[in-house]
Amino acid sequence: MTEAVKSGATPLEGDGKRILLVFGTPKADSFCHALGEAYTQGARAEGHVVRQLKLRELRFDPTLHDGYEQSQALEPDLLEAQRLIHWAQHLVFVYPVWWGSVPALLKGFLDRVLLPGFAFKYRDAHSTRWDKLLTGRSADLLVTLDTPAWYFRWVYGAPAHRQMIRTTLGFCGVKTRRLTQFTPLRPSSEEQRQRWLRDAERLGRRA
Q1: Could you tell me the residue range of the domain that residue 26 belongs to?
Q2: Mean of pLDDT over the chain
Q3: How many domains does the chain have?
Q4: What CATH number did the domain enclosing 99 receive?
Q5: What's the pLDDT at 2?
Q6: Four-residue CA torsion sign, 21, 26, 30, 31
Q7: Nearest to 56, CA basis, from 33, 75, 79, 87
Q8: Which residues are 18's β-sheet partners?
Q9: pLDDT tens-digit profile of 20-74?
Q10: I want to staple 106 with a disulfide (CB 3.0 to 4.6 A). Which of 24, 178, 192, 193 is the partner?
Q11: C-alpha span between 157 and 33 (Å, rounded)
């Protein structure tokens, strides 16, 4: 559980941008954690206020059992996550691509948190038009892959990227500013990974 969730503390306001960084991997030793911490360090160095959500530490059921047809009570950690999303001006998601998509933990988090009335709202019961309730927020995506970037785009069609940018964040009004791929991860050297961490820190400084 994150510090903010544990304490129920309200993030302090400052002169910088309010940033919520979501670690979307269930792995404790994932390189994503190092990337997220580097981004956080860079953003805080520029005076931005950063809060973190490490999904693997939250307590919630990632399965939306009845879709959106029936209400499913939100656990305290998800209520806190919604509060932080409302608080944030800029969202950062750090996650690996598995099987061409985001990890199940991240997908379950999005299913449970981005609810009708919170993230979007259809205009009436029979309408296909909707209001984007998170409009005004921006996002950065920091993504690790083992597949080379060119192959993921041109052969697979980059399904994970389309899912996050268009059919999830875009659907709710969040505009993705940058998607940065760190790939291929598995054969990368320590020297390459250190360069990637420096890149992530620079991204945080430019938040």
Answers
A1: 3-205
A2: 93
A3: 1
A4: 3.40.50.360
A5: 43
A6: negative
A7: 33
A8: 49
A9: 999 999 999 999 999 999 999 999 999 999 999 999 999 999 999 999 888 999 9
A10: 24
A11: 26
